[in-house]
Design a protein that fits this description.
Creatine Amidinohydrolase, Chain A, domain 1, 17% strand, binds glycine, 2 domains, Creatine Amidinohydrolase, binds manganese (II) ion, 434 residues, globular
Length: 434
Amino acid sequence: MIINNKVYKQRRKQLAKTLGDGIVIIRNSSDQIRSNDTTYPFRSNSYFHYFSGFPESDAVIVINCKPFKTWIFSKTKDKTKEIWDGFIYGPAEAAKQFLFDQGLDLKHFNDSVSDLLAKNSKVYLLQEDLSLRGLVSKILNHLSKNKRADAFLKNEIISLNSFVDRMRSIKSIDELKVIRHAANISSRAHQFVMANIHSDSYEYQVEARLRYFFGAHGARNEAYSSIVASGKNACTLHYIENQSRLNKSDLILIDAGCEYEGYASDITRTFPIGGKFSEPQKDLYSVVLEAQKAAISQVKKNNSFNDPHTAAIKVLAQGLRDFKILKNSVNAIIEKKEYKKFYMHRTSHWMGLDVHDVGDYFDPKGKPVRLMNGQILTIEPGLYFPDDRSVPKVFRNIGIRIEDDVLVNNNQAEVLTSSCPKEIDELESIIGKG
Ligand code: GLY
Ligand code: MN
Ligand code: MN
């Protein structure tokens, strides 16, 4: 493990210091039923993970900011249950290993929290955890009825998100180590797939190859469902069916990244299945690549979050005009947003524990935020051509996206996924050579 349990404890301390007083309650996700008594693979809630590192479902952490005291509520140690479902820490061991002041059984959660709520006027919850908010409201109501406090009137339920999102969006040295590691495995997985594409006949076989590579190199999970989109499927932005047969004359768009120690990576590469770009494919690819490089060059501390997007659009608009797909001037194409027919998504999103990570894109006045050192964003322009008479025949049904993960670092952005090839000659020298 790169991130150890002291780091999680330090984060809890930092949060308490930021908030000053009140209590924080963060609950982990529950297991999700797949059918009958089988469940989907469990993944912790990212906020819960960020402050605990504790891997069990349903557990809850509570932080009393002043004086600083922390609790973990977890499942009862149950030897019989462990025979079926595996190891359970139990509250005492959970507290010891994960450095909480006290471990308590989940069944005592309501009573313990009730005592804390009676003494605190502020309670911070994740805004999306509506059922916890319901439970806390119920406890407050109960307290006020029983005159243990005029709790319902006095207590304030405050959204925790913005406080934590600020912490999560600037990555620490340890987090960068983990994300670099994830990015590196993903970059090599893409190269592995490129080299062996000639052995695959269906998109799902390519997907299997990605999953194999991730797992074989220590990253058991994907950060999101891999998009393996050959031919016209690449024009469906969130294509995850991955069922089509591969055709050697088509391009394939692969958007895939592994998760490592809870952190995401997110890479897209588009390349010819047969190994050589046709002239029209090469023309379009070159424009997207140029747009991507122009966007990356705008990743600088204090630049606006929008600057990379603006740079990408300029290049794409020029390309669409050069190919006579759009007739207006570049300025008009941009002003009238005509490019949106072929480039309909944004160039970037934050990345971290979640592939689409937390953090604002706009300030309260609606202005794009400024980039800060330690933030990671993706740069992922694309062009997608529908089967439409307005598009020259040779371009129809082609979808191209190129995506890298970029760390803001003064004027010298670091492309964390730079080892994944994207130049035309590099790609052609790798494809099918495995
Ligand atoms: N893979 C999801 C995205 O690129 O946003
Ligand atoms: Mn992305
Ligand atoms: Mn992606």
